[in-house]
Write a structure and sequence with these properties.
- By secondary structure, this protein is of the alpha/beta class.
- The chain is built from 7 helices and 5 strands; from the N terminus they run αβαββααβαβαα.
- It has a 5-stranded parallel sheet, with helices on both faces.
- Strand 1, helix 2 and strand 2 form a beta-alpha-beta unit.
- Helix 4 packs parallel to helix 5.
- The longest helix has 23 residues.
- The protein is globular.
- It starts with a helix and ends in a 20-residue tail after the last helix.
Length: 191
Amino acid sequence: MDTTTTTTTMPTTTTTTTTTTAKLTTGRRLVLLPSPFQGHLNPMLQLANILHSKGFSITILHTRFNSPNPTNYPHFIFVPIPASGEEKHSFSDMGNVISFMHYININLLGPIHECLERLMSENGGVACFITDAHWFGTQSVADCLKLPRIVHRTSNISSFRAFAVPQLLRDMGCFRRSPDEGLISSLECLY
């Protein structure tokens, strides 16, 4: 009798999973734009999986530099940003992350705008644009297209606390306003 109950349960579970998967691929489209660094790609793809499980269709807009592997996520659509300029950057350049982030936020806004415009014109359009916090320049693109934007922050509590330090040091007068000003005497040299 227990064997019969187990056999009946198995097909029911399989049918439910198949029905749910078919329903998920027809949901409203969300476009996600992860930062091309591993500690940012993985959380964004995890968020995409959660949103997909809630019924959304997912499109991942990405740079060609350190791009995600589409075969690991067959239920997503992957769209590379054209003219990403990856030939100028490699992992050896990552020592200058700030310069790289500045580059992608200035030089890639036009291609991102074009990609989003094309995706919005397709059947169903785009319901929302979700970006990594490092893509700070994309707010102007979202505003121009009248597209709602959500910022996904992938930092931990330590880095969150570190964001408060520059303002605190500024308030203490630790930063020079001009070359003539010296540092405050209570601030010890860190090097």
